[in-house]
Amino acid sequence: MANEVRPCPCDIGDRFDYGGRGQEVQVEHIKAYVCKPPASTDRAVVVIHDIFGWQLPNTRYMADMLAANGYIAICPDFYVGQEAWKPSNDWATFDDWLKTRNAGKIDKEVDVTLKYLREQYGAKKIGVIGFCWGGAAVQHLMLKNPHLETGVSLYGVIRFFDDRSSLLHPTFFIFAEKDDHIPLEQVTLLEQKLKENCRVDYEVKIYPGQTHGFVHRKREDINPQDKPYIEEGRKDMINWLNKYL
């Protein structure tokens, strides 16, 4: 949860004890985690991590879930070797840390990832999902990258790109009702701007009673009342991808 000394509520939360079913690969100048589905496919999804980086077990769990649903899933290290945020770090230094990790400056890494997916896996239809910092990055890509088909932004930080809403591709926005970092007023304003400026399909959905990170971070067994919303968020994400990929 956010408070005075924590400008972002991306606490590690309930970190999964999860090793992942995929493998780590080198994609030109970056490393990435890749998980393939049981059957061959030309559909792929780029997974953009949150501030805890590409090695977070929770994020790899989500990549594996995508693979289980028929997608080639790849989660590159968008920090390009720079250290991810650690729960033990001093939150007073967070703003300075964030300045060197701009969610709007990932285009080079996305380009090499798309090239890799096409050349190594024959991917023809590629979408993108992202969490928090990565959710903001999804919005950035939906605004400018012509080579993607669709995107799902999960509790993406609205203030990073709140002045732009002319999306190029169908985009699904997932928000939590009780997200201390993304007030509902911001979500309402985003919806208003999308309604005015967006010419492609989009959806903004707020999940009741949920907090930041609920889709990929909370453990259902610890928060049984949240389980239906966690499952709903994951199902909605998959359904959106299925619709446009």
Automatic annotation (TrEMBL):
GO MF, any single term: hydrolase activity
SUPFAM superfamilies: alpha/beta-Hydrolases
Pfam families: DLH
Source domain of life: Eukaryota
Annotated transmembrane regions: none
Span of domain Dienelactone hydrolase: 30-245
InterPro entries: AB_hydrolase_fold, CMBL, Dienelactn_hydro
Key words, A-Z: Cytoplasm
GO cellular component, one term: cytosol
Localization in the cell: Cytoplasm, Cytosol
Family: Belongs to the dienelactone hydrolase family.
Protein name stated in the entry: Carboxymethylenebutenolidase homolog
Organism: Chloroceryle aenea
Gene that this polypeptide is encoded by: Cmbl_1
